[in-house]
Design a protein that fits this description.
With 313 residues, the chain is of the alpha+beta class. The chain has a single domain, classed as Sulfite Oxidase, Chain A, domain 2, CATH 3.90.420.10. Helix content is 16%, strand content 23%. It is built from eight helices and 14 strands. The strands form three sheets. Strands 5, 6, 9, 10, 11, 13 and 14 form a seven-stranded mixed beta sheet that branches. Strands 4-3-12-7-8 form a five-stranded mixed beta sheet. Strand 13 and strand 14 form a beta hairpin.
């Protein structure tokens, strides 16, 4: 029998908001925010205590029902732990997420390394829930805990020559058995254009459902870009680089005819081997129409004005 010892940095069970109550908790905190304070553990603190304590923009939160926690955490794509949808939950349990540092550098004035403990201190798990639609070959509504990527990028002060942002996942085949197989060219890499990365809907997630991010979902920190297909939302990030040229992206490198750099959700452009016009929500039998930009067109379509989205897919 395995006995799991709780790390000091993890919340106690009594400190975790129950899934059935997290939406009511949102309304309560939103009211407190209007009064000019943020709430941590029931105590009021000044807004300026941390650069990451602002509440998420409520415009982005969908009113659709959240996908249950057990489904979000049991059906994943995380090839570092295997190609099967159940492999990440099966093999990621002993993945070590401490110590963990995210290096942010490249074309910036103040390159820096951020310990995950400092990031978590400045992003209280209960106070930063985004309820976002996420789509891949299936779709979910996930109550992510996180903060805008631009908050971190602004701390290192990007230079005018920076046009893109590159990301890398940890490379550790001993912990990540899938990396021992050349399924992809490891480490996993992704990229965004700088204006995409600075959009408030591009977030760095550190948890879901008010709980620390499970290993199989990309612990301890991952990218979430909800208007793009899920493989753009790189997991277990260790390096973020501001660069001038379009960076490499793992699936684009592996199959450029099937996976473009932008990978925006576009139901009018089929994958060479299947239609992308319809999607299946986890837990539902029937498929539904796929929405352009995954339903976030009002917020992000202007980023691609004048681009042929069939060519720049």
């Amino acid at each position: 029998m395995l006995i799991r010892v709780r790390r000091a940095s993890e919340p106690k069970p009594s400190e975790i908001t129950p899934e059935s109550l997290h939406l009511d908790r949102r309304r309560f905190i939103a009211g407190a925010s209007a009064a000019g304070v943020a709430l941590v553990g029931g105590a009021a603190i000044a807004d300026e205590a941390s650069p990451f304590t602002d509440l998420p923009d409520s415009r982005f939160n969908t009113t659709e029902e959240s996908t249950p926690f057990d489904k979000i955490t049991a059906y994943n794509n995380f090839y570092e732990f295997g190609t099967g949808k159940e492999d990440p939950a099966r093999y990621a349990g002993e993945f070590r997420t401490r110590p963990w540092t995210v290096e942010v550098g490249g074309l910036c004035a103040k390159p820096a390394s951020f310990a995950i403990e400092d990031i978590l201190k400045s992003s209280p798990l209960e106070d930063r829930i985004y309820r976002l639609r996420c789509v891949e070959a299936w779709s979910m509504v996930v109550p992510w805990v996180g903060f805008p990527l631009r908050d971190l990028l602004n701390k290192v002060e990007p230079l005018g020559s920076a046009k893109f942002v590159a990301f890398e996942t940890l490379l550790d085949p001993e912990q990540m058995p899938g990396q021992a197989v050349r399924t992809l060219d490891w480490p996993y890499r992704e990229g965004l254009r700088l204006d995409e990365a600075m959009h408030p809907l591009a977030i760095l997630a550190v948890g879901l459902y008010g709980k620390p991010l499970p290993n199989q979902n990309g612990a301890p920190i991952r990218l979430v870009v909800p208007w793009k297909y899920g493989f753009k939302s790189i997991k277990s990030v260790v390096r973020i680089s501001l660069v001038e040229d379009m960076p490499q992206a793992s699936w684009n490198m592996a199959q450029p005819s099937e996976y473009g750099f932008y990978s925006n959700v576009n139901p009018a452009v089929d994958h060479p081997r299947w239609s992308q016009a319809r999607e299946r929500r986890i837990g539902e039998f029937l498929k539904r129409d796929t929405l352009p930009f995954n339903g976030y067109g009002e917020e992000v379509a202007s980023l691609y004005q004048g681009m042929d989205l069939a060519q720049w897919f």
